[in-house]
Design a protein that fits this description.
The structure holds 2 protein chains of 2 kinds.
Chain A (H helix, E strand, L loop, with lengths): L5 E7 L2 E7 L5 H8 L18 E4 L2 E4 L12 E3 L14 H8 L9 H14 L5 H7 L10 H16 L3
Parallel strand pairs in A: 1-5
Antiparallel strand pairs in A: 1-2, 3-4, 3-5
Chain B lengths: L16 H5 L15 E7 L5 E7 L1 H5 L3 E5 L25 E2 L5 E7 L2 H10 L1 E6 L6 H5 L25 E5 L2 H7 L2 E9 L11 E7 L2 E6 L4 H12 L6 E4 L13 H14 L3 E4 L2 H7 L6 E9 L5 E13 L7 H13 L6 E9 L13 H19 L3 H8 L14 E2 L2 E2 L2 E2 L5 H12 L2 H4 L8 E3 L2 E13 L7 E6 L5 E5 L8 H13 L6 E5 L15 H29 L6 E4 L2 E4 L2 E7 H7 L4 E5 L13 E2 L1 E13 L5 E11 L6 H20 L34 E6 L17 H17 L10 H7 L5
Parallel strand pairs in B: 1-12, 10-11, 14-15, 18-28, 22-23, 30-31
Antiparallel strand pairs in B: 1-5, 2-4, 2-6, 3-5, 7-15, 8-13, 9-10, 9-12, 13-14, 16-17, 19-20, 20-29, 21-22, 21-27, 24-25, 25-26, 29-30
Chain lengths: ~160, ~775
């Protein structure tokens, strides 16, 4: 087994981390096992379900398919970093997921919310079809797709309302 | 109806929503403990083999490996000692009976090292003959999975020569009275739960006491298994399942937990076991696949006279649920769905060299329902009746001649007579037909809703049922805190179904507290009072019922403290808005917080007085929840592709404690059942018994794009309060699974004029039915 460790610098949720990473370690493992940020969930660990989605420089990526060493210098946002840092106020997508029961078991939830955030950053007024297209790579075994769609559309409305 | 309530019936946020949207909820696989090690399992590549040599010395020599377990150094115990179906194999066995069965377990300081160690274990096998198909396994010359049993037919005290019988009325007479006899052979597919969190367990010993964090639906059963397998008292085993993620029947980690506990014991360090997705596919249990031959007698006027069903199911190499799955098919769908007048059921549960079967959403009723509801459709067509009308006429009603099974009891589960619950069929069917605009869309038999070139639209209906109590009692405790808030204790986990939320709503309602003042502590076996767990849609009917009664008990104690201070009898009091009031003089009251600060010892306890008895007959009752679904589809007759345009489902939940969560649960079962027949194919190699697609790319779950848009997924909540449930509520979650598949098949028939009686409704099967296969 390779035991070489590679030093990298990673910004996660606004905080800079200097880490020594094995060459085969995935970003998901680094976040979960090294940094204890277990809000990033592992459902398939092979890029098929979207549960491990985090935002890298604002774009959704599958953290189980990325090697941590590839993320040198990148800015990562996980679900733990989404609420307002100072006040703890939930992001509008988190708020609508709470209010409208956007989750059941909760495994797909962080990936869904972050994927939706990336969508709304690009398109503040998406149609239902655009929301469905954006979430097509995120599996929800609890079948909450209808509610999730509603939550994202309601969040878009809330964000446009300047709230 | 729900206006009389303050909290019950409200669309309140889930009690665990905030921790789930912030990523703060720690699931079992998220847990880390100081010095924690990682477990990995070596699995058999053969479907049936005897281990002739196993050498772990190289694995043990690998730096970082702390313990290796094989059949040579673990206790010779059955992993599920209390269930007849669990007594075939040993914890680690010298003979393996399916691909994926555990051969060895390793604990190492890193999961990569544990994985490496698996490769260093040398195993030699003597490969034995194996059989995978249920019908092949029934043949007289088939290889025996367990030669010591002398047969591949599952036997129990309830079977006769390997056949599970149910026979009421006189089917021969019934068929003789029929004008038409409809007959067919139908299949339903194997399905895997694909729980979002794969099998996960963490074990830690402190002194001689074990703590096991497990994603499980049945923590008290797991506690018992650990106690028996490890030969320690129950008081030394603590199972904690704060979040048991995505159950659907999957979460019962028995053997994994015992092996992980042994690894932790031998190394003196905590150990975490988390399956990979591929391991979860082959190393856990799954839904049965079934083949049903059914015969239905009907009269010209549309009355059913008899049903005969012969059901063959694939048991696999073992099961924790004995033969309860086909038993449920027999007593629910094949006895209580329609006014059959006479019913005879013969069930063959066939042991094969594939992985265990177990509980999965619907537990026998989706399988039987997929058969019966396709056959019923054929009967309605034969009579020339609208299929909705046929169902309204024939669905079961309270007081009908039905199964009165005083004489037949399936192990510990006693089934009683048909109770008043079935009367909600009428409302479910009528409301679903109205909402789906059935009358407008149904153009008659052999007439599609619309034809546009090769694309044909059709509409189909199905009804279904499932029991909503898996028998046995449940208990709960409500502890008042000094500030007037309350803690509720129950051994039934929240698996995403919303039990924590609904329990808080019910307790808050009873005690007159705010929803946010009730804290629910679930599934910690050293803390929470005995309760069997969540399965068989029992959480609401029994678990929340116990909390409801415990809250009543606590309220009574509060009244007894308040009564002398208010100078009235306790009966004259009520609790509302955080106060105990005099009913007739609302100006006189004491805040509950004040009562609790002077008397901080108030605790309510309750045991649900199950079983319940029917008012009319005094006989034990079998509570059920019922449902009706209408599906509208478009079939591309050139490609076989199925576009599901609209799904409307009506479900009786007795009383919707939280309508939002009921809708969540309907959607769950609707989509899971769509996946079951539309996309999820569990492919087993016919010669080797190996699963060929253990990943989410090839085992396809429904995506958001496979399901209709918001407006076209309609959930209808029917409230037909049950006399036994908390505020009339009962379990409903699994029933939704029973109606989807046949509604789709019947809609395909309406669209195309071809009946699919096989197990999947995938494009290849549609083309095959259309006679278009090359």
């Amino acid at each position: 087994m390779l035991s070489v460790l590679i030093p990298i610098v990673l910004t996660v949720n606004g905080e800079k981390y200097e880490l020594s990473i094995g060459p085969t370690e995935t970003l998901a493992d680094t976040l979960r096992e090294k940094l204890g940020l277990t809000g990033t969930k592992i459902m398939c660990n092979e890029g098929e379900c979207g549960a491990c989605t985090v935002l890298m420089d604002g774009k959704p990526v599958l953290s189980c398919l990325l090697l941590a060493v590839e993320c040198e210098g990148k800015d990562i946002l996980t679900i733990e970093g989404l609420a307002a840092p100072a006040t703890g106020e939930l992001h509008p997508i988190q708020k609508t997921f709470v209010e409208r029961s956007g989750m059941q078991c909760g495994v797909c939830t962080p990936g869904m919310i972050l994927t939706a955030k990336a969508l709304l950053e690009e398109n503040i007024n998406p149609t239902e079809d655009e929301v469905r297209e954006a979430l097509a790579g995120n599996l929800c075994r609890c079948g909450n797709y209808k509610r999730i769609t509603e939550c994202v559309l309601a969040a878009a409305e809330m964000m446009q309302g300047g709230k | 109806m729900s206006q009389e309530f303050s909290i019950v019936g409200k669309r309140l946020p889930r009690a665990d929503a905030i921790e789930k949207v912030k990523g703060e909820a720690k699931f079992t696989s998220d847990m880390q403990l100081p010095q924690m090690m990682h477990a990995k399992f070596l699995r058999s590549p053969h479907a049936h083999a005897r281990i002739t040599r196993i050498d772990t010395s190289k694995a043990e020599a690998l730096s970082g490996v702390k313990c290796v377990l094989t059949h040579k150094n673990v206790p010779k115990v059955h992993p599920v000692p209390q269930v007849p179906g669990g007594k075939f194999e040993y914890l680690l066995d010298e003979t393996v009976h399916c691909v994926g069965e555990e051969v060895a377990a390793v604990a190492a300081v890193a999961k990569e090292i544990a994985e490496e160690a698996l490769k260093l274990i040398e195993v030699e096998y003597e490969v034995l003959p194996a059989v995978f198909d249920k019908e092949e396994a029934m043949k007289p010359d088939a290889p025996l999975v367990y030669p010591e049993l002398g047969s591949n037919l599952y036997q129990s005290p309830r079977t006769i020569d390997g056949m599970l019988p149910l026979d009421w009325g006189d089917v021969e007479k019934g068929f003789a009275e029929a004008d038409y006899i409809l007959e067919g052979t139908y299949e339903s597919p194997l399905q895997h739960h694909v729980s979002p969190e794969p099998r996960s367990v963490v074990c830690q010993w402190i002194g001689d006491k074990l703590t096991c964090w497990a994603s499980t639906q049945i923590p008290q059963k797991l506690r018992l298994e650990l106690s028996v397998c490890l030969d320690i008292p129950l008081s030394s085993v603590r199972v904690i399942s704060t979040y048991s993620v995505g159950g659907y029947g999957a979460k019962d980690p028995e053997k994994t937990a015992t092996l992980t506990a042994l690894l932790a014991k031998r190394t003196g360090r905590p150990v975490r076991a988390v399956f990979t997705r591929a391991e979860d596919f082959i190393g856990t249990h799954r839904r049965i696949d079934s083949k049903i031959h059914a015969r239905l007698g009907v009269k010209r006027d549309g009355a059913i006279t008899a049903l005969y069903t012969k059901m063959i199911t694939n048991f696999g190499k073992g099961s924790q649920v004995a033969n309860f799955v086909p038993a449920c098919s027999a007593v629910d769908t094949c006895s209580m769905l329609y006014r059959y007048q006479n019913s005879k059921f013969e069930g063959y549960h066939v042991i094969t060299n594939i992985q265990d079967h177990g509980a999965m959403n619907g537990f026998g009723d989706p399988e039987a329902g997929f058969c019966i509801e396709r056959l019923i459709d054929e009967a309605a067509e034969k009579i020339g009746t609208d299929p909705v009308e046929f169902r309204l006429k024939n669905c079961m009603r309270y007081g009908d001649k039905g199964m009165e099974l005083d004489c037949v009891a399936f192990g510990p589960i006693k089934w009683g007579i048909v109770g008043p619950d079935v009367d909600s069929f009428q409302e479910c069917i009528q409301r679903v037909a109205e909402k789906a605009r059935w009358k407008e869309k149904w153009k008659g038999w052999k007439t599609p809703v619309e034809v546009r070139g090769a694309k044909r639209r059709g509409i189909g209906v199905a009804i279904g049922m499932h029991h909503c109590v898996a028998a046995t009692q449940d208990s709960a405790t409500v502890k008042m805190n000094q500030d007037g808030t309350a803690d509720v204790f129950s051994s039934d986990p929240d698996i995403g179904q919303g039990l924590r939320t609904a329990m808080a709503q019910v307790v808050a309602e009873v005690l007159g507290l705010r929803y946010e003042d009730v804290n629910v502590i679930l599934a910690d076996t050293s803390v929470t009072p005995y309760g069997p767990g969540v399965f068989g849609s029992r959480g609401t009917s029994l678990g929340i019922n116990a909390a409801y009664l415990a809250a009543q008990d606590a309220k009574l104690k509060l009244f007894q403290i308040a009564a002398p201070r208010l100078e009235v009898e306790p009966e004259a009091l009520e609790a509302k808005d955080g106060k105990v009031y005099v009913k007739r003089d609302r100006g006189r009251g004491i805040p509950i917080a004040e009562l609790c600060s002077v008397s901080p010892q108030v605790t309510g306890n309750a045991v649900v007085p199950y079983p319940w008895r029917d008012e009319r007959t005094g006989k034990e009752i079998a509570p059920v929840s019922v449902a009706a679904t209408i599906a509208e589809v478009e079939v591309d007759t050139e490609t076989g592709e199925l576009d599901v345009l609209r799904i409307t489902s009506a479900h009786d939940c007795g009383r919707a404690i939280n309508p939002q969560i009921i809708e969540n649960q309907i959607d769950l079962s609707v989509i899971m059942a769509n996946g079951w027949v539309r996309s999820e194919e569990f492919v087993i190699d016919k010669n080797l018994g190996v699963m060929l697609n253990p990943n989410l790319l090839d085992y396809k779950l429904m995506t958001i794009l496979d399901m209709p848009k918001r407006e076209d997924m309609q959930e209808i909540i029917v409230e037909f309060p049950t006399p036994w449930g908390p505020f009339g509520a009962k379990g409903m979650s699994e029933t939704a699974t029973t109606t989807q598949a046949p509604a789709l098949a019947n809609a395909i028939y309406n669209a195309t004029g071809v009946r699919i009686r096989g197990d999947h409704l995938t494009p290849d099967r549609v083309l095959e039915a259309l006679g278009k296969t090359t």
